[in-house]
Write a structure and sequence with these properties.
This protein is α+β, with helices and mostly antiparallel strands and 369 residues long. Helix content is 28%, strand content 29%. Its EC number is 1.14.11.8.
C-alpha cells in the first residue's frame, strides 16, 4: 500500500499498488480517444511496487509520479486518485439531492417543473436538459401539445432517447382488444405497478399518450413515487424494508411464442452505496413464489402487505385524466403507475426506453455522474 497525501486538503489515503498501476493513464496504458485500457491485466507483475525513491510529487503536489519496479513510469492527477475511492463515492451519493421523493402534496407543488411544450422540446437543447433533469428528480415528466398520433409521440420521445424494442414492438398502440396476454389490454382496473418485472432488464422509462377516449368515461391514470414509499417503509419498519431488499420475488409472462421469467427483490439497492436504485412491483405478473422456505413466508407477506398499504395510500397517489396531446413519461424503475376501469373506446400509444440509454443521456447532459 502507498500513502498518498493531498496537498490541498492534507488528507492521506492508502492505495493498493496493483490498483494504482492498473489505473495508469499514460499513452501506453490508456487510449485517451476511446477511453479504454490498452493492456492485458496479466501484463502487470503481481509483485508490482514503486522502486525505492520512485514516488515523487510534481506541480505543487497536484500530480503524483511513480517509477515502478518493472521500469514503467506513471503520472496521476491527485484529485483523480482521491475521487476514485469507494469512500468518496459513498459520501457523494449520501449527500445527493438529485432526487426528490414525493407524495401527493409535494408533487402538486412541483408539477410546473415537470411540464414541457413539444415545440420547445424539439427546438431547444436547454429544454431537453430540463426535461431529462425533471425525470431524474421526480421520476415523471409531461410533454404537452403533442399531436395525437403515434408518429408524433415517437418524435417527442426520440428527441431525448432511442426507443426500446420488445415483443410489444417499438411504438405500441393498444385498446381493450386482447392483442397480448396482459391486463393492460382490457378495460379493467390496473393497480399500481411497474412494467416488465418478468424481463431480466426491465425498461427504464415508459411513455404513454391517450390518443382518444370516446363514448365512455373513467380510465383515470394514477402514479405513485416508489422511492418515497420505500423510504417511508424503511422509516416505519426497517426490518420489513430489509426483507424486501433481500427476498427475490419471481415474475412470469406467458403467451403464444413468449415465456419470460425473472426473479429479483422488490427494492434493489446499490451494493456499494446502499442507495435504492430500482423498485419492482407487479401483483399481476407474480409467478409461483418458490424462493424462500415456507417457514419464512408469513414474515415476507407481512412486509409485502405493509408496503402495499403505503403504496395504496391516497396521500401517495397522483390521479389525473390523460387527454390527447399530453405524453406522460415516467421512470419505470421508480414510479408505479395504474389505471381506473373505463367504458367506451380508448386508444393509447406508448413505448419503452432502456435504462442504460436514459442514464447515458443524463450523464452526457451533466445531470448525473
Amino acid at each position: 500500500m502507498l500513502d498518498i497525501k493531498h496537498s490541498q486538503s492534507q488528507e492521506v489515503i492508502k492505495v493498493n499498488y496493483f490498483w494504482l498501476r492498473d489505473h495508469c493513464r499514460c499513452p501506453r496504458c490508456y487510449n485517451v480517444e476511446t477511453k479504454q485500457r490498452r493492456y492485458n491485466l496479466l501484463d502487470i507483475p503481481r509483485d508490482i511496487k514503486p522502486e525505492n525513491g520512485g514516488v515523487k510529487y510534481l506541480k505543487d503536489g497536484l500530480v503524483l509520479e511513480v517509477t515502478w519496479n518493472d521500469g514503467h513510469v506513471s503520472e496521476y492527477d491527485i484529485d483523480f486518485i482521491f475521487n476514485s475511492q469507494v469512500e468518496k463515492l459513498i459520501k457523494r451519493k449520501s449527500t445527493s439531492t438529485l432526487k426528490t421523493p414525493w407524495n401527493l402534496p409535494i408533487i402538486l407543488q412541483n408539477e410546473r417543473h415537470s411540464r414541457f411544450r413539444f415545440t420547445d422540446l424539439v427546438s431547444s437543447d436547454v429544454v431537453v436538459r430540463d426535461y431529462v433533469a425533471a425525470l431524474v428528480r421526480y421520476g415523471i415528466a409531461f410533454i404537452d401539445d403533442v399531436p395525437a398520433n403515434t408518429t408524433m409521440t415517437e418524435m417527442a420521445i426520440r428527441r431525448a432517447f432511442p426507443v426500446m424494442k420488445t415483443f410489444f414492438g417499438e411504438m405500441f398502440t393498444f385498446t381493450d382488444a386482447a392483442d397480448h396476454a396482459d391486463t393492460a389490454y382490457s378495460k379493467e382496473y390496473l393497480g399500481s405497478h411497474t412494467d416488465n418485472t418478468y424481463f431480466c432488464d426491465a425498461a427504464g422509462v415508459q411513455a404513454l399518450h391517450c390518443l382518444q377516449h370516446v363514448n365512455g368515461e373513467g380510465g383515470e391514470n394514477f402514479f405513485v413515487d416508489g422511492l418515497h414509499c420505500a423510504l417511508e417503509l424503511k422509516r416505519r419498519n426497517p426490518k420489513a424494508f430489509e426483507l424486501l431488499t433481500r427476498v427475490h420475488l419471481p415474475a412470469e409472462y406467458i403467451e403464444e411464442g413468449q415465456h419470460h421469467i425473472h426473479s429479483a427483490p422488490m427494492i434493489r439497492l446499490d451494493p456499494v452505496t446502499q442507495e435504492i436504485i430500482q423498485l419492482r412491483l407487479n401483483v399481476y405478473d407474480r409467478a409461483v413464489f418458490n424462493t424462500i422456505p415456507q417457514g419464512d413466508m408469513m414474515e415476507f407477506y407481512e412486509a409485502f402487505c405493509e408496503f402495499l398499504e403505503i403504496v395504496q395510500s391516497p396521500d401517495n397517489q397522483w390521479r389525473f385524466k390523460l387527454y390527447p396531446g399530453t405524453v406522460v413519461v415516467f421512470d419505470n424503475w421508480r414510479v408505479y403507475h395504474g389505471r381506473y376501469s373505463y367504458t367506451g373506446s380508448r386508444t393509447m400509444t406508448g413505448c419503452y426506453v432502456q435504462r442504460t440509454d436514459f442514464l447515458s443521456k443524463a450523464r452526457v447532459l451533466g445531470i448525473i455522474d
